[in-house]
Design a protein that fits this description.
The protein is an alpha/beta fold. The protein contains eight helices and twelve strands. Helices cover 36% and strands 20% of the residues. Strands 2-1-3-4-5 form a five-stranded parallel beta sheet, with helices on both faces. Strands 6-7-8-9 form a four-stranded antiparallel beta sheet, covered by helices on one side. Strands 10-12-11 form a three-stranded antiparallel beta sheet. Helix 2 (58-64) packs parallel to helix 3 and helix 6 (176-187) packs across helix 8 (211-223). The longest helix has 16 residues, at 127-142. The termini are far apart.
Length: 244
């Protein structure tokens, strides 16, 4: 193993500063082939209040990313090229991905970003820089793009100003959270939105395991069909358009 491939996380991980722990806690998936590096990174992330899972292969990453808020992936994996894993993740959802790798050339960076990584960090790196990049990526994800105040799909009309939903011109009585969920899905009709992202953006820390499922079921009943909201197994939900 080369010297460059070692010591990728600083030997001294700075202790969290006042207010850092718990300020923004995410579920992070670490995809790292080197067990020592993975252990150090997982330990540091947990010290800063995050919930962390760790896998050592691309195949395991493709089975685990759906539950993550953020993926940190080394591109040097034993079974699959990390770029292929990035493409696989990006083809199904928009969970943020940061490539953390020893591949440091300009071409490597370009290929990583083109494969779907939201940011690219070259080893060795400073842990505080990693945390800053994670914060920046998550701010971009959680700041919704300007969306139309009124979203219409066929006979369904969702008015964000008045917070009213109508179907075929008739009002649909929805709760506040049901409206937020429907509006978020309908505003991004071609995107599969992971369950974890829906939970964090709509419910924050007040949720239970079946919160999203319960609200989706209620909305389907109120809209008169299951086709409006499509379940993508193991990932999340997407807006499906008018029910058949």
């Amino acid at each position: 193993m080369s010297q460059r491939s070692m010591n990728l996380v600083e030997p001294h991980i700075p202790a969290p500063r006042r207010g850092e722990v718990g300020a923004a806690a995410w579920r992070v998936l670490v995809v790292e082939n080197d067990a020592v590096e993975a252990e150090a990174l997982v330990r540091a992330l947990k010290r800063h209040g995050h919930e962390v899972d760790s896998v050592t292969s691309g195949g395991a990453a493709l089975q685990s990313y759906a539950d993550a808020d953020l993926v940190l992936i080394d591109l040097e994996l034993p079974d699959l090229d990390g770029l292929e894993v990035c493409r696989g993740i990006r083809s199904t959802c928009d969970v943020p991905v940061i490539a953390v790798t020893a591949r440091g050339s300009e071409l490597d960076r370009v290929l990583g970003l083109q494969a779907g990584a939201d940011d690219y960090l070259v080893k060795p790196y400073g842990f505080r820089e990693l945390m800053a990049r994670m914060d920046a990526v998550m701010r971009r994800v959680r700041t919704p793009e300007p969306a139309a105040r009124v979203v219409s799909h066929g006979p369904l009309r969702i008015d964000a100003g008045s917070r009213e939903v109508t179907l075929h011109g008739r009002p649909v009585d929805v709760t506040r959270k049901e409206f937020d969920l429907l509006y978020m899905l309908a505003s991004h009709p071609d995107t599969v939105i992971p369950r974890k992202r829906l939970i964090h953006q709509i419910w924050g820390d007040s949720w239970s395991r079946r919160t999203v499922d319960t609200h989706v079921s209620s909305l389907r009943n109120k809209l008169g069909g299951s086709g409006w909201i499509v379940t993508v197994r193991g990932v999340g939900f997407r807006f499906g358009g008018e029910s058949a």
